[in-house]
Description:
Main location: membrane
Pfam families: AI-2E_transport
Shape: globular
Protein name: AI-2E family transporter
Distance between the termini: 40 Å
Order of helices and strands: EEEHHHHHHHHHHH
Low-confidence stretches: 137-142
Largest sheet: 3 strands, mixed
Membrane topology: Multi-pass membrane protein
Family: Belongs to the autoinducer-2 exporter (AI-2E) (TC 2.A.86) family.
Amino acid sequence: ADGRIFVFDFGWYTVFVMPALKPQLVTFNIATGAIVKIFAVLLGLWFLYIIRDVVVMIFVALMLAAVIDPFADWLQKRNIPRGIAVLAIYILLLGAVSALLILIIPPLLDETGRIVKNFGSLFGRVTIALGLGKVTLGDGGLGDLQRLLSGLGSGVERGLAGAFSTITGFFGGLLGFVVVLVMTFYMVVEENALRRFFRAVAPESVQPYLAGLLTRVQEKIGAWLRGQLALSAAVAVLVYIGLSILGVEYALVLALLAGLAEFVPYAGPVVAAIPAVIIGLADSSLKGVLTMALYLVIQQIENNFLVPKIMQRVIGLNPIISIVSLLIGARVGGVVGAILAIPLATAVSVFAADMIEMKRARGV
């Protein structure tokens, strides 16, 4: 009712809107190029969603290439052809993983089966150790709690089976695994392949930046992943040795849990310690206290020795960002999303840091 005339200029045609008698000209100029760019972005996002499985495989290959690349460089400097070096690394890694699985899987399955079978009685033993008396299924709410805890064992088993099914389904089983290995091989052997790709599709003005960004992202993800794997392995070994000395049951399962929990900052080690302390308490109060002390000692060794030595060159993410990334990744992509969350967040953080630095340089 204020008499304004709205003029919408879409480049190829103009729309006039006159809602009142006293005209006041207000112009909205929407360039054709801007509309085309918006549609192009939406189309690109839709296309990425359609090929999301392929995108994940490419990102996994990039992660593996970032881990393998320094070892390939080291072998190449010793006059070993890069292709032969990568094949040698593949053979060593596959051999080590196969040997590890052969050694670990049988006792792991045995311990997991015993946990599932004995979870109900475990709770009763813990309550006795804590001085709460013997709790039976008929004791009302505590009985319900015991039944709930007894069901957790089978829930864990189903969860592990579901996680395996998710991963194998996502990558298309053996074929997807082979494709990832082949892509990783060519990414490491053909060091400049992605840079040539950027030169082919990206404007010349941004090619140097994209090449530098790719290098920094690969270096950061590779350093983080190598360091994290080494840290997880060290913690798992320490936990296994310590629990075995104390005579705590299910030492292998608890050690693997402690190693995996290292990927979750701060909260992970605490969560991994809880079931170990509970299982220790199931034997005796003293063993529960000693188990708690063991985890505290390992945490101090990690913070004061392992992290400074192993992760000294790695600039990690903010712990809050890491945890939020893991939660979002798990929500969006399940197990695969959780696995890729931290590396993807690391790549985004490198790009975001560049954008902030550019704004500061322009005085914005």
